[in-house]
């Protein structure tokens, strides 16, 4: 838990910037991180030039970054212009989820999905009303549905890769691809339950937490751990592993699509 | 009627995936895609190696409000199709 004085110091670093709203997000807010985790601070500004008064600001795609340290802890500030935020919202809501003939694969970039998730889970520390207004530009349920649909495409690709490798007796590759298929399937389960954090490093933690209130997820956690932690060394074992992994993937996706 | 041993328990093959896409349901094995009706999906879902073909007919006759003879005929037709297309195998025997 971060203290009030910590947040005051966080805001003091960017006091010279005319921010519309500021919110804390990332692993600290989501209780996924640890005492050494960075703190991610999002700053909505009317124009990115507004942040140019600060030192160490570097251009990174569609937002600017300032890295600072508060009470010995790293704090990453991201400065997002109102126009860019609106563009992300427009890109999200233009995704043709309900059009069977249209491609939806990777319609949002990594920075887009990071931003949307961190807006969704953010904790406003300056101008809550404006923060709520910015949140209202996004349909987070639609965002969740997009993540589910997009990740199922990854599952399907990995699933078919695995089957093709298996048929070709390329068993080592198939075993590793089967494991990836399961990983993506677990992500689909997490997304479908509203857990839109897409960081793979926290996958197992998110699944375990979900399992505390969801029996199916609890079972998935136990089986996922077994599949992740041990691929057999023997050919017979690898073949059984591939079959188990693909069946497990199918069970997860069918439960989500049911 | 196709030749299907109704005492056997069909089981899905691991390389087949079922997907829902815009209110339609498909079985997919690499480049082969089969669209399912609600009844054929129900048959597929029962192919877990636990229920014999005869038992499927009993379950689905009730669920789809059909007479037993029609349900059995439809189940057998679907099982025959799945088996012919190598989407299922018989793993277990009830007898």
Report the total helices of chain A.
9
Number of domains of chain B: 1
Kindly state the number of beta strands of chain A.
Answer: 6
Per DSSP, the total helix count of chain B is 3
Strand content of chain B: 25-35%
N to C succession of SSEs of chain B: EEEEHHHE
* Residue-averaged pLDDT of chain A: 94
Q: What integer is the average pLDDT of chain B?
A: 92
- Let me know the CATH homologous superfamily of chain B: Coenzyme PQQ synthesis protein D (PqqD)
Radius of gyration of chain A: 21 Å
Number of extended strands of chain B: 5
Supply the CATH superfamily name of the largest domain in chain A.
Beta Polymerase, domain 2
Structural class of chain B: alpha+beta
CATH class of chain B: Mainly Alpha
Give your account of this protein's structure:
Chain A has 258 residues and is α+β, with helices and mostly antiparallel strands. Chain A has two domains: 4-138, Beta Polymerase, domain 2, CATH 3.30.460.10; 141-257, Up-down Bundle (Four Helix Bundle (Hemerythrin (Met), subunit A)). Chain A is built from nine helices and six strands. Chain A has a six-stranded mixed sheet. Chain B has 95 residues and is an alpha+beta fold. Chain B has a single domain (8-93), classed as Orthogonal Bundle (Arc Repressor Mutant, subunit A), CATH 1.10.10. Helices cover 38% and strands 28% of the residues of chain B. Chain B is built from three helices and five strands. The longest helix of chain B is centred in the C-terminal third of the chain and has 17 residues, at 68-84. The model of chain B has no long low-confidence stretch (mean pLDDT 92). Chains A and B meet through helix 5 and helix 9 of A and strand 2 of B. Chain A: This is Nucleotidyltransferase domain-containing protein.
